[in-house]
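User: Sequence for NUDIX domain-containing protein below. Tokens please.
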Amino acid sequence: MARTFDDATRRNIAELCAAFARLAPADAAPTLKRAAVAIALTEGDGGSGTAFLLTRRSARLRAHSAQWALPGGRCDAGETQAEAALRELHEELGLALSERDVLGMLDDYPTRSGYLITPVVVWAGAHAAITPNPDEVASVHRIGLDAIELDGAFSFVTIPESSRRVIRFRLGGQQIHAPTAALIYQFREVLAGRSTRVAELEQPVFAWK
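Assistant: Structure tokens for NUDIX domain-containing protein:
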């Protein structure tokens, strides 16, 4: 069932984020580069409830080109995770938001490629004017929260290269992998009032570089 896009939903998600106790970064965190992504909430296509913004990265990018991703990137020197997520939202999608729009943060996720990613939940508003930067973003998609709450939306598989489970998020006929899938999965769990940890969920081998 779709969550209506209104102030009541904003308050509910803010309360769920506030009730979620983030884990402290792992001991290895000082060796990782800090990064942040935005789980930016807006109105779904055709007014179909609340959705989050998911991008397809430009094929011209040197790293992780053409992959599915939440808007975000590396933290600049002196930036907080929230500041970095908001800056990246503006640079990638033209969304000018402030820290008043931040609803909360989820657990840090360490990647195989050497980053520690902080997901920042942001309320982007119903009439957010999205202007993708073509140098970074090939396309932008509004994914309804009902899509991530479906039974079978997420699956877990094993690979020979790791003892950890690889998480996958099924979107249409495609599979989205960690780190993006792991972050979306934890957000789904927070919406259900559960404190499910995802740092040990594995990425596919192609995302290790």
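The mean pLDDT is 91.
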